[in-house]
Amino acid sequence: MTPVWFFALLGLVAPVLAAEQDGIAWLTKMANASRRLNYSGTFVYQHDDRIETSRIVHFVNPAGGEFEKLETLDGPAREVIRTNDQVTCYLPEAKTVLVEKRSARRFPALFPEQLGGVADNYAVIVAGKDRVAGYDCQVVVLEAKDRLRYGHQFCAEARSGLPLRARTFSEKKRQLESFAFTEVKIGGRFSRDQVRSSYAAKSKEWKVDHSALVLKDVPADTGWTLTRQPAGFKKLTEMKRSIAGRGNVVSHIVYSDGLAAISVFIEPLPKTRPARSLSHQGAVNIYVRPVADHMVTVLGETPAATVMQIANSLEFTRGRGR
Amino acid sequence: MDRISEWMDGELTAQETRVLVERVKQDAELRHCWDTFHLIGDVMRGERALSGSFERRVAKRLATEPTVLAPRAPTARRLATYTLSAAASLSAIALVGWMALFNNPLPPQSPVAQAPIPPAPVAAVPPAEQFVSVPSDGTMNEYLMAHQEFSPSSEIQGLAPYIRSVSRSQQAQGR
User: Fold this and answer.
1) Is B147 in contact with A148 (Cβ distance < 8 A)?
2) Do B128 and A305 touch (CB under 8 A)?
3) Minimal Cα–Cα distance from A176 to chain B, Å?
4) Longest C-alpha distance within chain B, in Å?
5) Does the distance separating the beta carbons of B171 and A154 come in below 8 Å?
C-alpha cells in the first residue's frame, strides 16, 4: 500500500475512531460522575406502560465512604440504601429487609477495563444536545451491532457528565425502559442523615434476609460452562454464594458484553419441579428452567433470546475433568 | 423503516442522517429495507424490469379477471373507461408488486442485494422457543438485586436501576 493510499484511508477511518473514542470518554465520565458527585433529585422510572417516581440522594464523604438512598414516592413505601459495601432494601409492606453484602472492594472494577467490549458490541455515537430536568445534556447513543443486545441512549449533564436520562430500546427500536430525572441538584453539601433509612429503627422487628458472596471462594469454579456462549459476551466472574431468602448455596456466573450483564444462578431443584418460564422486569428478561437436578435462573438486561441461549446451553462439565 | 423513507425523501438533517447511516451499516434488516424501497422506486419509475415470470403471472391473473360488460356508451365516455381501467390495472400491478415484494421472504433480486452481505450475526441466534414473557411476579427480587451489583449499567447509573428489584408491579402481586 502506498503512503498516499494509507493516508487517504486513515483520513476515512480516523474520524470514525475519534468519534467512538469521544463516546467512550462520555461513558467513563458518566460512570465517574455517578460515583464521585454529590447529587439529589427526583427521577421517573418508566417500563411496561407504568411510571414510578423515586427520590435519590448520593453522598460521598470526603473522609471516605459512599452513601446512596433511593426512596419510592408513589405506591407502597420502599427504600434502597447503599452504604459502601452493602445494599439494603427495606420493604415495609412485607416487613422484610433484604441485605446484599458485597466484597470489601467494589467488585469487579468494571470501568474502564470493560469499555473495550462496549465498542466491539455497540456503535457509540455522540449524537447531539438535549435538555433534561433543566440541564443541558449530551446525548450518547449505543446502537447494538447485532440482535443479542439492546440499544441504549444516555443523556449526560453537559459539564459534570452526570447521567440525567437512560433509555433502553428493543431490537425493534421500541422503548423498553427509561430512567429520567425530573429535578436534580448537583453538588452541594449533604448530611449523613439524608442517606439513612427512615425504617432503621422500625425494621428491627422485621424479617431480615441476608445474602453474601462466599468471599474466600471468589471467584470459584462452579463446574458449569456454556456450549454456545453468545457472541461478544465474556465471563466476568463466577462464584458460590448465598441469596437472600434461599437456603442453599447458589452458583452465580456473570457474563457481560461491556454494558449489559447476564447472571446465571444455579441451585438444587426445589421440592416442586419448576416449569420453564419467561418473565421480565423492564428491560431485564428472566428465564427459569430445570437442568437435571438443578434449577437454573438466567436474567439480564438483554433480549429474551440471549438469556435463553445461555440457559439452554449450560452444561455441568466438572465430571469430564474440566 | 419510516426513517429510511424520510431519508430517501431528503427530510433528515445531517445529524439524523449520520445516526441512520450508522444503523443501516449494522442492521441487516434495515439494509434489506433500504434495498426494497429502492427496488420499488425503480420499478415504479420503469427503470427496472420485473422478471418475466412475474409479468406472466400478473398477465394471467388479469386475464382471469371478469370482463366488465358495460352498455355501449358514447366514444368519449368509452375512452374515459379505458383510461380508468388502464389506470386501475397499473395500480393493481403496482399493488401486486408491493405485496409480492413484502411477502417474499427472500431478499429482492437487486444487484445491491446480490452483493455478498456478510452473514449477519442474527444467524447466530437460534430461533427462540415460543414463550410468552409475563411481567415478573416479585419472586425474582432477590436475584435481581444480586445481579444488579455486577451489571456495568449500575456502574453508569448508580443506585437507580435497583428500583427494578423493588418495583411496584411486583409489590402489588408478590411480596
Assistant:
1) no
2) yes
3) 13
4) 84
5) no
Neighbours of B98 (CB within 10 A): 14
The C-alpha cell of A204 is what? 428491627
Does residue A229 register a pLDDT over 70? yes
pTM of the model: 0.69
Q: Name the nearest CA neighbour of A119 among B29, B14, B22.
A: B22
Q: Give the span between the Cα atoms of B47 and B42, in whole angstroms.
A: 5
Put simply, the answer to whether B153 touches A254 (Cβ < 8 Å) is no
Alpha helices in chain A (DSSP H): 3-36, 115-121, 304-312
Chain B nearest C-alpha distance from A108 (Å): 7
Q: How far is CA A275 from CA A297, A302, B137, B146, in A?
A: 12, 22, 15, 22
Q: Which residues of A touch B28 (CB under 8 A)?
A: none
Q: What is the DSSP string of A252-268?
A: EEEEESSS-EEEEEEEE
For A138, phi then psi, to 5°, come to: -95, 125
Report pLDDT digits (tens) over B27-45: 877 777 777 766 666 655 5
Per DSSP (E only), the strands in chain A are 39-47, 50-60, 66-72, 79-83, 86-91, 96-101, 122-132, 135-144, 151-157, 163-169, 175-186, 207-213, 224-226, 234-242, 250-256, 261-268, 277-281, 284-291, 294-300, 314-316
Residue A56: phi, psi to the nearest 5?
Answer: -130, 140
| Residue B104 confidence class, pLDDT cut points 50, 70, 90 | very low
Mind listing the pLDDT tens digit for each residue in B126-170? 445 567 888 888 888 889 999 988 888 888 888 888 888 887 654
Radius of gyration of chain B (CA): 27
Longest dimension (CA), chain A: 77
Q: How is residue B156 written as a grid cell?
A: 453508569
ipTM for the assembly: 0.89
Cβ distance B175 to A145 less than 8 Å, yes or no, reads no
Contact at CB, A261 and B120, closer than 8 angstroms: no
Q: List, for residues A20-29, the tens digit of each pLDDT value.
A: 788 989 998 9
Q: How far is B143 from chain A (nearest CA, A)?
A: 7
- Residues 3-32 of chain A with CB under 8 A from chain B are 27, 30-31
